[in-house]
Amino acid sequence: MVVKMRGCLKNLGNGSRRYMYTVTAGEQKPAVVIGVRQEQTENTFTLTKTGERLNSLAGGEISTRLTQSGSLLKEGSCRLIGNVHPDLGQVLAVGLGKPKGVLEEENIDLDREAVRKAAAAGLRAAADLGVKEVQIENFGDCEASAEGATLANWTFDRLKSEKKPKPSVLPLDDSSDAWLSGVNLGNAQNLARDLMECPANHLTPTLYAEEAKKQFEGLPVEVIIRDEDWAVNMKMGSFLSVARGSFETPKFLEMSYLAGDKDANPIVLVGKGVTFDTGGISIKPSAKMDKMRADMGGAATVTATLKAVAEARLPVNLVVLVPLTENMPGGKATKPGDVVTAMNGKTIQIDNTDAEGRLILADALTYADSFKPRCVVDVATLTGAMMVALGTAATGVFSTSSKDYEVLSAAGRLTGDRVWRMPLWNHYTKQMKKSPLADLNNISLTPGGGSCTAAAFLKEFTSCPNWMHLDIAGVMENEGAIDYLGSGMSGRPTRTLVKFVQNLQ
Questions:
Q1: Is the peptide bond before 493 cis (omega within 30 degrees of 0)?
Q2: Which position among 213, 284, 291, 433 bears the catalytic label?
Q3: What digits encode the pLDDT tens for the residues 360-379?
Q4: The model's pTM
Q5: Could you tell me which of 5, 130, 136, 488 has the fewest CB atoms within 10 Å of its CB?
């Protein structure tokens, strides 16, 4: 931005005079974000290759200003360098820290995480400058850089009258497939965040289904919206029992992207789609109940995963199933002690109507078997016990296949959005079969291990030998744990799911 200032003497009326200036803005150039690495020797740093190139263009002005600024840039921090050359806009330097590589004990690539943090810090600083466009270098990892910038350039403001402008983001280095992949991954997670943040009255089961159909317009994805009568005909008594208390009719989304080998069995993702969860008759406390607008986080992440896969035209067969309903305490609502029959014929004693996610997933998992899947992965904000067990660090995973779990774990290492395997033992299954009235109880009568007993319950409704259950209750929201996400609903673990689908053999 070329800035010209004109001054004139003003009489302020109280006997004093002061010069006042008018700023005239010329053509605004894009802000430029470059990286700074801290070296092992104390108080030393190096610029990235792109940083060195621009520093040379500017006659060493970037490195000079950095050395004179008083302190080294820490990882994830940003410093305004300013204008250093007529061909460049405002230059911002961001810290990458010291090279660390992969920390095997924690299953994380710290260098990729540093790149995401740096890109996010640069993006936010550029946005604060009010620029319309920002060019961000790749910091040696195009995909991670694009991810960090895209994820940081998000806010949920669709319902606000005043919206903070967001700068457009472009690669400072030549664009590449890796950069486009990172943008696609970031956009997918942002879609999941949008869906999770959306108030429940703006995203009922019907509205969710319509939004999903809109998202896949122009993509090779078939979207089928099943209605309540279809669920009745399919004998989905478990799913329908949750919907009984709500005025909003349930829907069942079936979405298919078939770009793999014609004879290849599809990967099936199943997402919990409770668009608002009061707990039903077993009603939740009112404090923070508004957060239950995101109880469809499983649905949001699998829908977003499908979009990323379709956008990238990955050569896979992918089916996504989303049972959609509210859980409300209406006059027709299911009551504690009621017994319902699931699609697979098993009866369920419902002792707690707030353990509803497993009830809608049960029938969806049974239906998933009809696709003869390569594997089935269900994703759900299922239990508060998972938040107690793992906090916000990782998604809890229960798996019948060690091989598939390793693919998922490796995907989490790549994306920085990790998973952790939990026990899926008969010990927990026995607890769920202690029902005086039915084949199964929807809660354990024995305290403890709530996430494990919920997974054991779900296992009773799938015959697929390669099944994984992802409990994302702990990672539903971000409150500062991940720098490049900002606060709000997280959309996790969308990027990990995309990489899993991409890499699964």
A1: yes
A2: 284
A3: 999 999 999 999 999 999 99
A4: 0.94
A5: 5
